[in-house]
């Protein structure tokens, strides 16, 4: 048996184990033979290369006992602590610098999942719809966000129900600061931060148009600021409820866009989203003012102590409320502006249709009748006798 590109003949082993390096250039001929061009230069797509890099890293870490402990640093949340309870002890978590490593790992995982959804689901659907370049870009964006928002709504709803945050609103500000988090709460926040951070390199991978980049950067940064703020300021319980409301509205909007791309006459979901959007803004503002402006203001431990995770001061509460109110006001202003623009375009189309002049009617042709009158299809003379036929003269 001939020897392979990277190992001895007759032996079957992992390509990563034969390379001796975490950088998986040598494993490309094994996993993707079509990725190597002339002279050994890689011509692999960035997403497939990243997928290869992540897979090789996991194989390397888990197959070798020395690096197995390091692998758990990337995969599992860190800073666990046993908290005594009435039933015994439960394991909770708090945040720290090692969370950045875990977030970075899940950024790579999210990029791979993004590519899988794009290649095996969205591309196949868009080919059947025959969309233009602009609609194709928006279709891909909405398709990715529909899957993300739906999974996040289900996951977030499960967390707030099992933890009792939905049935007990007082738990949003009682026992503040909420330094120690259950596993599912911390893991949810880490995955949320990883998703919105992965959206930054996706602007390059998806080849987003330059006109669309500022708009997408705006809402990516908006989500990152709010999620990171709730996580670092120990307002995780309030952040879960606000994310549940926001994601539900966004899911409805992107679902409406997908139906619109499939059938341009289908705009019923947009009307439902418009009604839900305003109600959601009202609920978010009310809940934020209730929890931060009234709930935390009545707590006894009003002191600035970053070591204990306590940020319950008047200045911090005002800054958080100002940020939330400013974000909701900005979203509402953009919503009103877009609705006015759509209504203006609709009325312009209707008025243009009314101004189109009707086609002029052609005058009816006058039928030239012979002198006399008709009787049973025969022309009669005025005196009642039939006109004689003229004899043709012979030449």
From TrEMBL:
InterPro entries registered for this protein in UniProt: TLC-dom, Translocation_assoc_membrane
Sorted UniProt keywords: Membrane, Protein transport, Translocation, Transmembrane, Transmembrane helix, Transport
Location of the protein in the cell: Membrane
Gene Ontology CC: membrane
Database matches in Pfam families: TRAM_LAG1_CLN8
Membrane topology listed for this record: Multi-pass membrane protein
Domain TLC: 137-346
Annotated region (Disordered), positions in chain: 373-395
GO terms classed as biological process: SRP-dependent cotranslational protein targeting to membrane, translocation
PROSITE patterns (alphabetical): TLC (PS50922)
Residue ranges that the Swiss-Prot or TrEMBL entry lists as coiled coil: none
Keyword Translocase: no
Keyword field contains Transmembrane helix: yes
Sequence intervals crossing the membrane: 100-122, 143-167, 187-205, 217-234, 272-294, 314-336
PANTHER family, per database record: TRANSLOCATING CHAIN-ASSOCIATED MEMBRANE PROTEIN 2, TRANSLOCATION ASSOCIATED MEMBRANE PROTEIN
Family: Belongs to the TRAM family.
Protein name (Swiss-Prot/TrEMBL): Translocation associated membrane protein 2
Protein species of origin: Canis lupus familiaris (Dog)
Gene behind this protein: TRAM2
């Amino acid at each position: 048996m001939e020897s392979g590109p990277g190992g001895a003949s007759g032996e079957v082993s992992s390509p990563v184990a034969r390379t001796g390096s975490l950088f998986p250039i040598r494993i490309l001929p094994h996993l993707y033979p079509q990725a190597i061009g002339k002279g050994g230069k890689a011509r692999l797509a960035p997403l497939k290369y990243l997928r290869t890099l992540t897979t090789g890293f996991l194989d390397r870490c888990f197959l070798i006992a020395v690096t197995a402990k390091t692998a758990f640093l990337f995969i599992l949340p860190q800073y666990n602590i046993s908290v005594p309870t009435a039933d015994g002890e439960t394991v909770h978590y708090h945040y720290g610098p090692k969370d950045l490593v875990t977030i970075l790992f899940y950024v790579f995982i999210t990029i791979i999942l993004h590519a899988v959804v794009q290649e095996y689901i969205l591309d196949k659907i868009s080919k059947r719809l025959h969309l233009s370049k602009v609609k194709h870009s928006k279709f891909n964006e909405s398709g990715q966000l529909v899957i993300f928002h739906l999974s996040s709504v289900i996951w977030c709803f499960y967390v707030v129900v099992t933890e009792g945050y939905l049935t007990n609103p007082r738990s949003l500000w009682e026992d503040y600061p909420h330094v120690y988090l259950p596993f599912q709460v911390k893991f949810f926040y880490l995955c949320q931060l990883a998703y919105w951070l992965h959206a930054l390199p996706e602007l390059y991978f998806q080849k987003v148009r330059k006109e669309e980049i500022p708009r997408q950067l705006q809402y990516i940064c908006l989500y990152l600021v709010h999620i990171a703020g709730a996580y670092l300021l120990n307002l995780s319980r309030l952040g879960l409820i606000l994310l549940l409301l926001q994601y539900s509205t966004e899911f409805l909007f992107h679902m409406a866009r997908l139906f619109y791309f499939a059938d341009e006459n289908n705009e019923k979901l947009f009307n439902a989203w418009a009604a839900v959007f305003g109600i959601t803004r009202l609920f978010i503002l009310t809940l934020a003012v209730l929890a931060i402006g009234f709930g935390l203001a009545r707590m006894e431990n009003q002191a600035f102590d970053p070591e204990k995770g306590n940020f319950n001061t008047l200045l911090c509460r005002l800054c958080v409320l100002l940020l939330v109110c400013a974000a909701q006001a900005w979203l509402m202003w953009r919503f009103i502006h877009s609705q006015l623009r759509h209504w203006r375009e609709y009325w312009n189309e209707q008025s243009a249709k009314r101004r189109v002049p009707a086609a002029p009617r052609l005058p009816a042709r006058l039928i030239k009748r012979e002198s006399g009158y008709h009787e049973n299809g025969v022309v009669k003379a005025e005196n009642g006798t039939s006109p004689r036929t003229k004899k043709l003269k012979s030449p």
